[in-house]
Specification:
The complex is a heterodimer of chains A (520) and B (380). Chain A is mostly helical. Chain A has 19 helices and 6 strands. Chain A folds into 3 domains: 367 residues, no CATH class; 45 residues, no CATH class; 71 residues, no CATH class. Chain A has a two-stranded antiparallel ribbon. A two-stranded antiparallel sheet of chain A has the order 3-4. Chain A has a two-stranded antiparallel sheet with strand order 5-6. In chain A, helix 1 packs antiparallel against helix 3 and helix 2 runs antiparallel to helix 3. In chain B, 69% of the residues lie in helices and 6% in strands. Chain B is built from 13 helices and 6 strands. In chain B, strand 1 and strand 2 form a beta hairpin. Classes of the chains: A mainly alpha (520), B mainly alpha (380). Chains A and B meet through helix 3, helix 4, strand 2, helix 11 and helix 19 of A and helix 2, helix 3, helix 4, helix 5 and strand 2 of B. Chain B: Its main location: membrane. Chain B: One of its GO terms (molecular function) is electron transfer activity.
Chain lengths: 520, 380
């Protein structure tokens, strides 16, 4: 049995490195399209200011992108270094989208990012625009493949367990590809990236306007960000609702925990705006509920029920008992593959194999699990309610706050007097961190809500780790924290410095705060 | 079209080889340039010239590494799992060394302070020198077997330490690998520079080329005389569903050279390593730097090909539980996954090569001090 400390440290390291990586990814995803919009304006109008906009925002984009690349490599290494059993157990399915991501998307993005920065004088205007578009396409395709992999962890379709190879194997690639969870996640996540890019440009442009610097440059940037941001935040909210629907089908547990819905209510269920969940007694000490809303979001109907936590636990108890038989049969089958009777028994229970593996957290031989252990495993199948309940609500609240900001920004952009609305500019500036916080909250809801599984219903988290010593984990965790802190300090220093200086850093002689040309 | 399982297993051994060779040729020359940077560039402008020879391309080239890792994950999941977790600290050292590259390239020129720039130069050196060294050391350990075993559910456990990896033969392989990559980077740098930088790089090119020839030879003799190879003695069914515990393996003196006797054509690979290196040195000195780059790329095919053929069919032998050794037959993905990945590779690889070639064509020509001065704000 693997020590709980090892499992917790492995999770902590993955969470830290993934959330850190995700500080840079959304901005990259969003900025690529904003750069495409700005450069298209340059190619269509021939006005130099649009080229300067592409180059200046591109410069900030580059500072961010460098850390996105740096921290992305960690993610690819880490499945192997720290989640070895996971890699073996599901690599047959999970590895393919990661490899295809490299072939189809990351090569495209990374090759053309070089030409984006270095090709201005060597390419025609249209050629350079094509380069920028290909870079954006590559970035977004990259997100698609990563989320196909991630979607499969939430909803493992198109695969079967093989007792000979002792792992999950792909049986239907198209099912993995068109996994509804993956598709909904993709649109929701890239839209969140677009919002992040838009907020970045909006806030920094507002900063210039408040200071009265680079006014024309800032006005044009603000308008683009307002329009792009408004469209994107609408997409995030509408498609977030779409992910709510698919979770409803594939992962009712996450939904119930996120909603602190202990009982199965008569359809359509109500939505708890605020509640104080009480895990021990499995009830809410206090709740304000809007009737019907949850049922409609979760099932797209008025008559289908959404199971509450207590009902899900009962179902899971059945599945754990059946899984217990599956694990026992599998262990016999591994020793004697010719045993037809055991094979038949195994095949009868194989769908619950993952639930049986939950018992491995407590006993080596799952056949000896006592009723108390089975109760513990049943309790494990529900992630902790309070953290999910609150992070989800905070994310949604931030979403609507940003909708209000981008709505106002777009309204006054159309009217043309946004630059005089100092309250709007101040709000835009102060709300700069909101999309990053929302993205991290969304990541938390999606991944913490999947616990106790790495692959929902298939492989428990506690079995997925590498058999390393706890000392190794403390060492590597210290290394990551050290490197990442240092990198963040350097990145923020450069980002703030160049954002404050503004387009003057291009050294064109057309803007405030010019850098002297001989700055080398 | 769908190939049968044994053929696909073999194709994937070749394809992983192609990806590793592609990584060594493309990302390798960037890394070699990084290793040489603090030595061949004497002032800031010279160093910027050196960096900008790879500036527009390093990021795309690094994807060979990422895709190689992804392909091993998808095609040989058990190898990915066992090697990455077993070589834990070595992998983290590679990873942390690679951290210096994106930020080194992108952040260095953003501030004119000499200490700032000098720090990133050494960062780029670390990012260029450490990964090839460690990959060489890892290969050196594969030949000696790695201490890992599997539980009944195929959960792997590694019982060695990081320091045990640093044994003499493995360190020699590390030198072979670093010499090869630095040599290759030097040839590339000669192609893209002129004047004093080119002259200094030529000295390094000749030194690392000679070092490569010498250490490659010593490693070969050592492998033949001093290290017991691995051999499968039970019947192999290449069509079987992969199960690494279902075979019998022994250790045997000279077994690592057995394939050259069985398939004499494979001797072309070590020959190519020698011929490619010698030809690249000769061509580069005579100014035919592009042809020299092709020759040093062929030398890389020769060196990595030699390592691969010597190990075949083993990928990662186990020194503690011989039968658990991972081979091309029993550590692979399912038939369907191998087939899908083959098609993905066949479709996208030519496209990647085409646009990478275009990117090099757009940026072709010598990088000069005048270019750096004209592009002070845009160049690295």
């Amino acid at each position: 049995m693997l020590s709980e400390e090892l499992v917790d440290l492995s999770r902590l390291q993955f969470a830290i490195t993934a959330m850190y990586h995700f500080l840079f990814v959304p901005l990259t995803i969003g900025m690529t399209w904003i750069l495409v919009i700005m450069e298209s304006a340059y190619v269509m109008t021939g006005k130099t200011i649009y080229k300067d906009m592409t180059r200046f925002w591109g410069k900030l984009f580059g500072i961010n992108f460098a850390l996105g690349v740096t921290t992305g490599i960690t993610m690819e290494f880490q499945f192997g270094t720290n989640w070895a059993y996971y890699s073996h157990y599901v690599g047959d399915i999970f590895g393919a989208p990661l490899a295809i991501e490299g072939l189809m998307a990351f090569f495209l993005e990374s090759t053309f990012i070089g030409l984006f920065f270095f090709g201005w004088d060597r390419l025609s205007r249209k050629q350079h625009l094509l380069v920028t578009i290909l870079m954006a396409v590559g970035t977004n395709l990259s997100a698609l493949w990563i989320l196909i992999a991630n979607g499969w962890m939430q909803n493992p379709v198109g695969a079967e367990f093989s007792y000979v190879t002792m792992r999950m194997e792909m049986v239907d690639f198209w099912a993995v590809l068109f996994n509804p969870d993956a598709q909904a996640k993709f649109v929701h996540t890239v839209s969140a990236g677009y919002v992040t890019g838009a907020m970045f440009v909006l806030s920094i442009s507002a900063f210039y306007l408040l200071r009265g610097r680079n006014v024309d440059f800032a006005r044009k940037s603000f308008r683009i960000a307002a329009a792009f941001g408004f469209a994107s935040i609408c997409s995030v909210i509408v498609l977030g609702d779409e992910s709510g629907y698919t979770v409803g089908e594939a992962q009712q547990t996450k939904l119930a925990a996120m909603e602190a819905m202990w009982e199965t209510e008569p359809a359509p269920a109500g939505f708890n705006i605020i509640a104080i969940p009480n895990e021990a007694e499995m009830k809410n000490d206090f709740a304000i509920e809007i009737p019907w809303v949850m049922g409609i979001i979760g099932t797209r109907s008025l008559d289908k029920q959404i199971p509450g936590i207590k009902e899900i636990r009962e179902k899971n108890r059945e599945r754990i008992l059946s899984g217990q038989i599956a694990v026992g049969a599998l262990e016999k089958l591994r020793k004697n593959p010719a045993d037809a009777e055991t094979k038949a028994l195994f095949e009868q229970h194989v769908a619950d194999l993952g639930f049986g593996l939950l018992l491995k957290k407590y006993v080596v031989d799952v056949g000896t699990a006592t009723p108390e252990i089975i109760e513990k495993a049943v309790a494990d199948t529900i992630p902790r309610v309070a953290p999910l309940f609150w992070t989800f609500r905070l994310m949604v609240a931030f979403g609507f706050l940003m909708l209000a900001l981008f709505g106002a920004a777009l309204w006054y952009s159309v009217k043309g007097n946004f630059a005089e609305k100092r309250w709007l500019l101040h709000s835009a500036l102060w709300m700069l961190p909101i999309p990053w916080i929302s993205c991290e909250l969304g990541w938390f809801v999606a991944e913490y809500g999947r616990q106790p599984w790495t692959i929902y219903g298939v492989l428990p988290t506690h079995m997925s780790v590498s058999t390393l010593s706890v000392g190794n984990l403390y060492g590597s965790l210290a290394g990551f924290i050290g490197f990442y802190t240092l990198l963040l300090v350097v990145e923020m220093y450069l980002m703030v410095r160049f954002a404050k200086q503004g387009p003057g850093s291009l050294g064109t002689g057309r803007y405030d705060n010019e850098t002297a040309h001989a700055h080398a | 079209m769908i190939f049968d399982y044994p053929t696909l297993k073999l194709i994937w051994w070749l394809l992983v080889g192609v990806l590793l060779v592609g990584f060594a040729i493309m990302d390798g020359h960037d890394m070699g340039v990084g290793t040489l940077l603090p030595f061949v560039g004497k002032d800031d402008v010279e160093r910027r010239v050196v960096i900008n020879t790879v500036g527009p391309h390093w990021d795309g080239n690094q994807v060979w590494f990422i895709t190689g890792g992804g392909a091993i994950f998808a095609a040989w999941p058990l190898v990915y799992a066992t090697a990455f977790s077993g070589f834990y600290w070595a992998m983290l050292a590679v990873l942390w060394a690679l951290f210096f590259r994106p930020v080194g390239f992108d952040y260095r020129s953003k501030i004119a302070n000499p200490t700032w720039r000098n720090t990133w130069d050494w960062g780029l050196f670390v990012g260029g020198a450490v990964p090839p060294l460690i990959f060489g050391v890892a290969f050196g350990n594969l030949f000696q077997g790695v201490p890992f075993s599997f539980a009944d559910n195929l959960m792997s456990t590694y019982t060695g330490s990081f320091w045990a990896l640093l044994n003499p033969f493995a360190l020699l392989c590390g030198v072979v690998s670093t010499a090869m990559i630095t040599f290759h980077g030097a040839v590339y740098l000669m192609h893209r520079t002129e004047g004093a930088i080119q002259r200094r790089t030529q000295v390094a090119m000749l030194a690392f080329g000679s070092l490569l020839l010498a250490t490659f030879s010593v490693a070969g003799i050592w492998l033949w005389q001093g290290i017991d190879g691995f051999a499968i003695v039970s019947a192999v069914d290449p069509a079987a569903l992969p199960n690494p515990l279902d075979k019998e393996v022994i250790r045997q003196p000279g077994a690592w050279l057995a394939n050259y006797g069985k398939y004499p054509l494979t001797m072309a690979l070590p020959a190519l390593a020698y011929a490619g290196t010698a030809a690249a040195m000769l061509l580069a000195v005579n100014g035919a730097t592009l042809a020299a780059f092709v020759a040093s790329s062929l030398a890389i095919v020769g060196v990595i090909g030699t390592a691969g053929v010597s190990l075949f069919p083993f990928i990662m032998p186990s020194s503690t539980d011989l039968r658990a050794s991972l081979t091309v037959w029993d550590s692979v993905s399912s038939h369907l996954t191998l087939n899908i990945m083959l098609w993905a590779t066949l479709i996208f690889m030519p496209i990647i090569i085409a646009y990478t070639g275009w990117a090099y064509k757009v940026m072709a020509g010598k990088v000069t001090a005048a270019y750096i001065r004209e592009n002070d704000h845009a160049a690295y």
